[in-house]
Amino acid sequence: MDPFVNLPDWTALAPMLAFAATALALFLLDSIEPESDSLSLTVLTGAGLVGSLAAVVLSGWFLAEGVSVELFDSAYVVDEMSLFFTALFGSVTALVVLGSHDYIADEPYQAEYYSLVFLAATGMAMVASANSLAAAFVAVELVSLPSYALVAYLKHNRGSVEAGLKYFLVGALSSAIFIYGISLVYGATGVMRFDLIAEAIATDALTGGPGILGLGILMVIGGIAFKTAAVPFHFWAPEAYEGAPAPIAGFLSSASKAAGFVLAFRAFTVAFPLEAVSGTFDWTLAFLILSIVTMTLGNFAAATQEKVKRMLAYSSIGHAGYVLMALAAFSGTGTEGLLAGVSNDSLVLGAGMLHLLVYGFMNTGAFLFVALAEYWGVGRRFEDYNGLWRDAPIASVAMTVFLFSLAGLPVGAGFLSKYVLFMGVIGAGLWWLVVIALINSALSLYYYSRLVKALWIETPETPREIDSYPTGIYAAVVGAAVVTVLLLPGFGIVAEEAIAAVGALL
Amino acid sequence: MLIEALLVATLLAAGVVAFAPDRYAGKLAAALSLLPLVGSLWLWLDFEGSGNALLDGGEIAYETTIEWMDIGYTLQWHVGLDGVSLPLVVLTTILTTAAIVSAWTPIDERESQFYGLVLLLEFGLLGVFAALDFFLWFVFWEVVLVPMYFLIAIWGGPRRKYAAIKFFVYTNVASLIMFVGFLTLVFAMGDSVTTLGLPEVAQALQAGGAVGSIAGFAPETVKLFAFALMFFGFAVKVPIVPVHTWLPDAHVEAPTPVSVLLAGVLLKMGTYALLRFNFTMLPDVATDYAEIIAAIAVISVIYGAMLALAQQDLKRIVAYSSISSMGYVILGLVAYTTYGIGGATFQMISHGFISGLMFMVVGVIYNETHTRMVGDMSGMADRMPWTVGIFVAAAFGYMGLPLMSGFAAEVFVFLGSFDAPYLSAAPLFTAAAMFGIVIVAGYLLWAMQRTLFGEFDLGTDYEVGRAPLHDVAPLAVLLACVIVLGVNPDLFMGMIQDAIDPIVDSLGGGV
Where is the NADH:quinone oxidoreductase/Mrp antiporter transmembrane domain (chain A) (predicted)? Predict the structure, then answer.
């Protein structure tokens, strides 16, 4: 018996509504008891955990049941792709909520902080489901606006406020470019919905000529590049991550980036299918260039950083470059690649999703470890982390797992997701792109192991006094590490889901 | 499920030791390392495998196959042992236990972490030799790097950080290149393979190749390309000239017990992989380019020995001599005769024991004298007769004295390479490589004469006495292994030949 037969369609919104309801419930809690004390902080964190895990469970359940629903005149779809990403957003949100528990214990406006996180998560879930340029724009703005405020949350910290301002200014500019691109696409096609845009392009019913459409697509890419922190819209990221509270940096660099990518995956496969627009604007070339420049710049810049958070920020730009390879290797033809029985397009996009999923755990975990260090007032430079294993052996093991997994060593699933991605790219015939990615990967080992070296091998310059061990951050860091490792043997299950999700989309 | 039990026991031991108090860590690690040791000896006594694990026919011992995931290619948990891998598993467990005991004296800080990492290293090494699926194998292959990096970087000598990073980046880049090489090969085979299992790939290749063109390159070019990438990747690990430069740094900076495992087992990962991948899967490419490979091998033998001759540091002498010994292995492999490949495999085991022993002896001398420089000491035989006796015996083993394992190994290699059917001017290459033995004898005898014999004199002001029993005991055990294998090579040689013959047969060659 299909348990969904008798449910109305709107119930498919449940995972997204779990985020939204939590955001509103946190507002409500705050208005009942505005003066926060430690009890209410626990209540807030608990509510947040319940909300985010509910989203994970609901989307996982729907995914297993194979729910696929179109709502609001098909402007909004809940399918495997959106559910996969909603589960990803829920997991990252849970980690961030747990990690923030101790990090913001002494800060005011905790309920607002949490509800902003959940508003952003709501926006991400909406981005994953948006099937029209208008819906996508609204959803992206719902991610961005709370993010600006969250980056500037540490009001007494000049860095935080400056970062928020910079993020906001770049974000406003990117939004303008994005919506201008949308208006050009609308001008050319006369429709907003992804599937109708594709139809309009295919039937040559373009009103404004192909040039307008091409420019529009290029500007939409610009908007996406901002969200994913891809070159040339990347320069806000190091500043924003550096200044933002560390859990928020983790949130932005993994969940928010994944939101940008899911929009890219859907928009460019459904609205601008390659075979239809290739005469106008061959976007794979754009993504190819973006990918090479982004990964190379990100990795080289990361290798020269003196501060840990900036290193992680630039390395996150590098990882955006890896995922962009998925779009660069997309052929739109559905031909079987290297893997028998699977179209290469499903494989590369699925691999991109998998990398984002694994990245969600390992990168958020790494930023939460930084949050732990900031909580202790350890400092920001590599040298400040020297010998930290003496104070936090278990968290240091977890951090080592994150860093080696990020570098692509098989201690965690980062290894598999990266190499499945490379397999897909080779399958598309872009073996030289994989060579570039491998060089980048080798370079990343250098700077990631630099932090590992500081943690385990160097001796501290000045003695540290650490006497309190925050439960929340510890739980989040260890939890993220456990999932990162467990995804290695469990990779098959999520891989099948991801590849199937892309297959359903195409 | 015996291999799984072995792996799980080793991994659990690593975890337990890592969280034990430092005071007990060394003893506890030694005790727990007996589990894999006894387990592997049991596997050896009970061994009923036949044939080659990668090629058709024969029976893989202790085999388990469980489907892991399907991403178009099926990835499996597939482990098993044949006559090539079993001796290496035994070598690994014996050397690990010996290395742990030999670490009791020199390692005096963060002991629980040290022994935990050594056991984690053992876990990775056992996995490399047991895995029969490419992905699984690669996971273990890379897992080995992580503990090695820490072991060199934390407990090593003055330039340890430089050496560790160099080792890590160098070998990781090599791994990635090899990875690309293997995947290129598999992708070029198209639908004729559906898994990344090593036996499946090897058998599909043997059954007529089916290597197609990829990215516009002709099948022959693709095969050569894949062969070259894999060869390069493994050559770094072996290492052979000219990609050997990470080795002296890593060896000299690593603490003694880690050098033992590095030389004893880690280098064998490279030659083992060369045998499994390049020489078993693509024998036609290997034989087409036999002269070039043999030339590389001979250059490694001579050049490595010459480098050793020029060193002043005992540990460096032993380190460079490994390059030379590994050259013999390559020469034996490219011979494609039962004696050649069998001798090469036997040389892997033999060199594992002998070089481990040599590093350990140098370590024991260093523990007492706090110097390794040849010019600083003389007449050590006066003060530590047992240790020096073992040193001399080990050096004789290195030189290939009869009744020591090194003799058997080298004789097999030379017999095999002399008759190499696909190698033109085979006697010439063999003769050139044999000249290496003369240089080996030269630098070892010269070093021994200056350090061990004559009047006792030490450049530093340490009291030099006899080494404690727990330092000498592992030396005695390893020396016993060297002699037992030398007197009765057939302890391993039978099963090795059993596993080698299918490779030779696949070419229709042999002696």
Answer: 130-444
